[in-house]
C-alpha cells in the first residue's frame, strides 16, 4: 500500500472525519482505520482527525498533502489522539504467563529501601560476580525458580505519577509498615493510592526484630483503615518481616508469587512491543540511557521506538545488571541506548514500523502538542464531572480532600459521602491534613477526581501541575459550603463558578516601610507577568495570610503597570502589612466559568424500561 511520498497532491482541511479523508484519497474507510491503528491511533470512520494526522496517513498512501480546503467539522470536536494506545486485542492463544511487577509503598523510614536492597542482595547477586552496580529503576529477583520484577523507586509518587498518565505498571503493591511505628500519614496515603489503582495489596509488617514491635496494634490500625488482613477474615495477606535479620523474606516473596498466580498474569510476547519509561538519564559515555518496563510484546535491538515526546532506534539493550541482551519480553525492565532525547519517567513507548514512520509521527505529534498546548487537557472539574454524571458516563464522584487540621477530615468526609444517592456515589478517595501536593493532583488525575481544600493551600508545584492538567482545586473555609456545593453539583444546580487564574508568582525578598503606603514587599517575579490590576494572595508555607487588591506596584521608584518574570519590584497589598522575607505572592484574576450542562440527575438505568 505504501509508496514513495510526494506523488499525488491532495488538499486536506484543518479537520475532517476518517470517512471524509477516505473519500479524498479514494480509498476505503477501513483502509484508513487500519493505517491509523498501525500508527497507534484508535479510530472509526466517524472520528474527526486533524490535519497533521490526516497528512501522515495521506503520505502513507503516496500523497503529497497540503493544508487547505473547507473545514468540514467543528475543530473543537477534533478528538485528542493517543499515539500510544493500541487496544488491538490479543488472541487468547497468543497469551503467555508473565511474571509479576511489584512496587513497594509506605511511610518514610519504614524500610522500603532496606527491603528492596535485601531482596536484591540475596536474590539477585547470589552466584554473580561483581553484583549490581547501577540502579536503573527496577530489577528482577528469583524465588523458587520464578522471576519477580521489583520497581526500585520506592514511594507512591512514582506509582501515582505513572497512573496519572494512564499507565498501570504495577501488578502487586507491597505496603511496608514498620511494626514499631504503625500506620502513619504516608501509610494512609499509600493505602488510598493503591486502592484507587485497584491493585492487589500485600502488607509487609517490617522491623519485627525490634523489641517494641507491636504487630497487633498495626493490624487493628489497618482494620480501621479498612485494610482487613486474612487473619481477620479479609483478603489482604500480611507477612511479618525484618530487613535486618532477614526473617520472613522467603515468606514475603512466596506470598507475592501466590498473589500473582491468583491474578493469572499474561502477556503476548509476539505483538508490537510497548511499555513505560522507568528512568532516563544522560550517560556521559553512552548518551541517553532510557530504562523501560516492557509491558507487551518483545523489544529487540534495531527496533525504532516512539518514546514519550522523543524517538530513537535501539542501539543496544541492557538488562538490569548492565549486560547486553537481545530480547526483552513482557514484565522485563531493560535499558535502551539510542533514544534521541531524555524521556520522562511515566512516558510510554511503542515500537514503530520504521524510522520514517517514527519521524513522521514524532513531527506530527509535536505539532499537535504545540497547537493543543493552550487547550486544557483532562478537565476534571466539578462541572465537567457533573456533565459526565448527568450523561450517565460517570457514576462516581471521586474527591481528594485536604484540610488544615486532622479533626476536620472525618466530619467533612462523612458529610460528603452521605450525599451519595442511587445514581451517584460520592467517594473521598483520599483525605488528609496539609497542603495539596503534586501527588494529590496526580491521584486526582488518575482517578478522574477533583481536589477540595479546606483552610489549606496548594503547594506551588501542585498548583502548576493542576493548572497544566486541568484538575480543579476548589477552596473552602466553611464546612457547610463544601457540602452544599458538592450537593448542588450533584443536583445540577451549581452556580457558575468563579475560578482564580494565577498569572504570576513572586517571592518576597525584603520589606520596606514607606510613608503613606505602609509596608511594601520588595519581591522578585518568579514566573508570569504581574499586572497592576491583578488580585494578590500572600502565602506562607501552607497558610494563606491575605488576599486582596494591589495598593501599589513599583519598579525603581516608579509606578509600574506590569512586571515580568525575573524582575524585582515593590508591592503593597490593601489591608495587609505583615510581610516576611520568603513569603510567596500569587497574582491572579478571576474568571467566571459558565456551566455547559444544566440537566438534572439521570434516572437510574432501569427506570425508563417498560
Ligand atoms: P524507607 O524510607 O522506607 O526506604 O526506609 P529505609 O529502608 O531507609 O529504612 C529506614 C531505617 O530503618 C534505616 O535506618 C534502616 O536500617 C532501618 N530498618 C529498615 N528495616 C529494618 C528492620 O527490619 N529492622 C530494623 N531494626 N531496622 C530496619
Kindly describe this structure.
It is a single chain. The protein has 610 residues and is an alpha+beta fold. It has 14 helices and 31 strands. The strands form seven sheets. It has a six-stranded mixed β-sheet. Strands 13-14-18-16-15-19 form a six-stranded antiparallel barrel. Helix 1 (18-25) crosses helix 2 (29-38), helix 5 packs parallel to helix 6 and helix 5 (156-164) packs across helix 12 (438-447). The longest helix has 18 residues, at 355-372. It is globular. Bound molecules: guanosine-5'-diphosphate.
Keywords:
610 residues; 31 strands; 26% helix; globular; disordered C terminus; binds guanosine-5'-diphosphate
Secondary structure elements and pairings:
Layout: E1 8-12, E2 15-17, H1 18-25, H2 29-38, E3 48-50, H3 51-60, E4 63-67, E5 96-97, E6 101-106, H4 112-123, E7 138-143, E8 146-151, H5 156-164, E9 172-178, H6 185-197, E10 201-206, H7 215-224, E11 238-240, H8 249-263, E12 266-267, E13 274-283, E14 287-296, E15 304-307, E16 310-318, E17 324-325, E18 333-339, E19 348-352, H9 355-372, H10 382-391, E20 396-403, H11 406-417, E21 425-433, H12 438-447, E22 450-454, H13 460-469, E23 473-476, H14 479-491, E24 497-514, E25 518-531, E26 535-540, E27 543-555, E28 558-559, E29 562-564, E30 568-573, E31 584-593
Parallel strand pairs: 1-4, 6-8, 6-9, 9-10, 10-11, 20-21, 20-22, 22-23
Antiparallel strand pairs: 2-3, 5-12, 7-8, 13-14, 13-19, 14-18, 15-16, 15-19, 16-17, 16-18, 24-25, 24-31, 25-29, 25-30, 26-27, 26-31, 27-28, 27-30
Helix pairs in contact: 1-2, 5-6, 5-12, 12-13
The protein binds guanosine-5'-diphosphate.
Guanosine-5'-diphosphate binds at residues 106, 108-114, 154, 206-207, 209-210, 242-244.
